[in-house]
Amino acid sequence: MSAKILVIEDVPEMSELVSMYLQKDGKEIVKTGSAEEALETLADGTPDLVILDLNLPGMSGFEFLKKFRNEYSQTVPVIIVSARDADEDIIMGLGNGADEFVTKPFSPRVLVAKVNANLRRNSEISAAAEDFIAFGPYKLLLNSCVLKKESEKIPLSTKEYKVLEYVVKHAGETLSPEKIYSEIWNSKFGDITAVAVYVQRLRKKLEEDPSNPKYIKTEFGMGYKFEKDLIKESKSKQS
Prior knowledge:
- The protein has 239 residues and is of the alpha/beta class.
- It is built from eight helices and twelve strands.
- It has two domains: 4-128, Rossmann fold (3-Layer(aba) Sandwich); 132-235, Arc Repressor Mutant, subunit A (Orthogonal Bundle), CATH 1.10.10.10.
- It has helices at residues 12-24, 35-41, 61-71, 87-95, 108-129, 158-169, 177-184, 193-206; strands at 4-8, 28-32, 49-52, 78-82, 100-103, 132-135, 138-141, 146-149, 152-154, 216-219, 223-226, 231-235.
- It has a five-stranded parallel beta sheet with strand order 2-1-3-4-5, with helices on both faces. A five-stranded antiparallel beta sheet has the order 9-8-7-6-12, with helices on one face.
- The protein is elongated and about 70 Å long.
- The protein starts with a strand and ends with a strand.
């Protein structure tokens, strides 16, 4: 999924220029011409990063920044892009929660590089702060329900994630299909062959050779077991 960038800039030509370079870099852009309009867009969800001008009609960029930090997010990176270059403006912007202050005129390519650096840093901080279980090249992020292979996100359905999380948290235990079905589907009655289907799906995504799995093993006649020795590191209240 591409990063969502909120661009708050009242000069259409500048907004188009910034958006064009970011879209070429694969970003999803939401353009607004005022702080008030930007606040309305936040009802649809918080962006991954904000690019903010200071000289805006109505509410100023400084006022938006204070409101954004107090009411919406303390962690989403905010890059101020402004023609105001006085020390007092830079100090106020950074002091109120901006992560970068870029003065106009600027190189669009450098701005894109700063956007990517802030997104990467924020992602690394978020990943480091949450509980996880690491095995092989994979890291299971328990708070955000995400599986990553190094820096790549591996797409999982909700049930796939739940089955994987359950067997990983019970690594070393042989789990019967009935037990897995009861825990994940919250029912003692149903088609337990669904467990085998989801295990096969996970093997296709995890294993180099799904026909000879090393992570989720089959204990014939008994169930499935995640190999405990393959867990490299964990930071989890449950583990």
